[in-house]
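Can't paste images in this forum, so I'm doing it all in text. The chain is below; anyone willing to post the predicted structure tokens underneath?
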Amino acid sequence: MRGTCLIYSSHNRSHEIHHDLIAARALRGEHNRRIFFLPMSQTVNHGDEYDRQRYETGTFDWYFHRYRDRGLEFVPFFWNSALRREDLEILWQMLADSQVVLLAGGSSTIGLRRYKALGALFDNEPGRFGRILHERQQRGLLTVGFSAGADQLCEHLSQAAHYPMEDSDAFSLARNIVTTLHHERGREGELMHVAGSFPHCLAFGLPNDSGLYLDQGLLPSGNYWQVIRFVVDRTWDDPADQWHIKTRQGVPIEYYSPDGQHWAFHGGETMVRIQATDNSFQAAYVTTPTGLIDFFARRNSHYGSIEEVLASF
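Text version of the structure:
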């Protein structure tokens, strides 16, 4: 499938996610082989605006460095409180053109506020960052969200389920999806609370190392379509990190509905989802070895393929 959005949770740079889905995608670029890396969600450390952004960059740079002899560019851009117009002109160009954009970890709320403020600094367009992300999606380019970045690419920041927020609306590259990151056994109640707070969304718990790789758009009927591949990555094999890699302990990607219905995804499944523009209707079907399952009715579907579902709505 042509993924345009990857939201994921990981402890380190596991191979399936970081090579197969991110680096390899950048290396297939026709116009550039660039990963544009944004660590803007990191907090200020004792007055130093760059310290934690540099650290976050280093946790990715060592991995992507191995592909530089194949032409991969890894280009970070740091936030600071005195960005100039010429700085933002570089940002907007890189954001629009880079083969892969990666929103990194930190504070979901701080990062979202900064991203939204950038367009208002000189051009009075606070929604410019999100607009460019959606234009990337329409052009088939990949935008990646790690940890806080994953939260920011969903419909809402999941923290809004726990306390009031002035602005919890995220960028919706994963439309009507919310997540809890670094999910593990014992956090099912938190995931159910998030699901109940956003009943129009699907709520997924993403353990280390796992993600949702998806594409979405509008059908001729005016309904939204969404195809989601569930990625469960067990490739990171450093024995010192075994406690942190929940997928290697058998923890799946988990879904809970507001009424407590549960579904566990172990990797390789694909969901096709149809949504009305006003959220008054949605349908979803999941691939299994025996055919498509109606996700909400929990029974075999009469549809024979994802393509047949898309053609029927």
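The chain has eight helices and 15 strands. Helices lie at 15-27, 51-64, 85-97, 108-118, 128-138, 148-153, 188-197, 306-312.
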